[in-house]
């Protein structure tokens, strides 16, 4: 189990961050990934795997304003 934005997610341990985001249709170019309290930079997404008991926070940027 991996905790993603406070919600338990099953069957994601062992996936790379890229695979995880792609499966969720997440906007890879507009998301910040925090893994166990550390920011993971985009070049590391392919090489960083999610493990059991990891805590992931996904923060998306949305344009707008005036």
TrEMBL record:
Coiled-coil region: none
Alphabetical list of CDD domains matching this protein: Ubl_ThiS (cd00565)
Protein name (Swiss-Prot/TrEMBL): Thiamine biosynthesis protein ThiS
